[in-house]
Design a protein that fits this description.
This protein is 25% helix and 48% strand. The protein is of the alpha+beta class and 89 residues long. It has one domain: Arylsulfatase, C-terminal domain (2-Layer Sandwich). The strands form two sheets. It has a four-stranded antiparallel beta sheet with strand order 1-2-3-4, with helices on one face. Strands 5-6 form a two-stranded antiparallel ribbon. The longest helix is centred in the last third of the chain and has 22 residues.
């Protein structure tokens, strides 16, 4: 699986949320509104995928279902995030 496009939108940090990311997978599938959070008790970042609240339940809109896909998205997003945040300093 190849990530062919990455967009990062930094935001004013709030409750650990520092940016939103979107990725395009193999020029075929757009995945947006991926939350980028700082890790709670460690350095680095973590990703969250969109959910929809229905009553008392939160339903996943989409998320990676295997470790390989999750890693590919994380590596692409974290690399781009590092590039953007280093340029802002």
């Amino acid at each position: 699986m190849k990530i062919t496009e990455i967009q990062i939108t930094p935001i004013q940090p709030k409750d650990g949320l520092v940016a939103f990311a979107s990725v395009v997978v193999e020029n075929s599938l757009y995945l947006g509104f991926i939350g980028v959070y700082t890790r709670l008790n460690a350095s680095g970042y973590r990703l969250t995928y969109p959910t929809k609240k229905i009553g008392d339940k939160s339903i996943n809109i989409y998320h990676p279902i295997d470790r390989e896909t999750s890693r590919a998205i994380e590596e692409a997003v974290f690399s781009k995030l590092k590039e953007i945040f280093n340029n802002q300093a």
